[in-house]
Design goal:
By secondary structure, the chain is an alpha/beta fold. The chain is 29% helix and 21% strand. The mean pLDDT is 93.
Length: 194
């Protein structure tokens, strides 16, 4: 991103994303476009939150349990920026499968959404994450992205935080210098289906 914001790609589209509507929705398909510059800005702001508000540092580990939304890519890029090792867990996995991967990785934080639409139905990822972390002693916090704006999700005030609230007072022009890493440092851990 840092390279692209310094050249002709700065205002070119980096991400085109199309959401999935609810079955009963007559609303048009949700579409987002994000330029390289916009992506660089939000990645820096999220990296700032990770480092300065959540206390994450090079070598720490996080798990991302969410659908394919722009925030997933933003979180991966922000984690990579500060040297945090991440894994992305398929949002269709059960609480048990999620817990297995979180425990194997030793993740300090679990990032998830309140829920999302899948084939028109609501999948309540936060509820699944809550069930999973009961068996995950390394998880200190669950960071929730308000994807659907569900108001009936369970929130543990000692553990759960909303990403939008953490970002609220972070300056638009926040900059986090990329962590210097060795070529053999771990970037992410990916689990095979087998």
């Amino acid at each position: 991103l840092d390279r692209h914001v310094k050249n002709w790609r700065k205002n070119k589209v980096a991400i085109i994303w199309e959401g999935e509507p609810a079955k009963s929705s007559n609303e048009p398909l949700e579409v987002k476009t994000i330029t390289y510059y916009e992506l660089w800005r939000i990645v820096n702001r999220v990296a700032y939150v990770m480092r300065n508000k959540l206390g994450l540092k090079k070598g720490d580990r996080i798990a991302l349990y969410m659908p394919m939304i722009p925030e997933l890519h933003i979180l991966m890029l922000a984690a990579a920026r500060i040297g945090v090792i991440f894994t992305e867990v398929f949002s269709g996995f059960s609480a048990e499968a999620l817990a297995t991967r979180v425990n194997d990785l030793g993740a300090r934080y679990l990032f998830t959404t309140d829920g999302y639409y899948r084939r028109g139905n609501i999948i309540r990822t936060k509820d699944i994450a809550d069930k999973a972390v009961k068996d995950c002693p390394t998880v200190e916090k669950i960071v929730v992205i308000r994807r659907l704006g569900l108001t009936d999700i369970s929130i543990d005030s000692n553990r759960d935080v909303f990403l939008d609230e953490l970002l609220r007072d972070v300056p638009y022009n926040a900059f986090v210098a990329p962590e210097q890493l060795d070529s053999n440092d771990t970037l992410y851990v990916i689990y095979t289906s087998g």
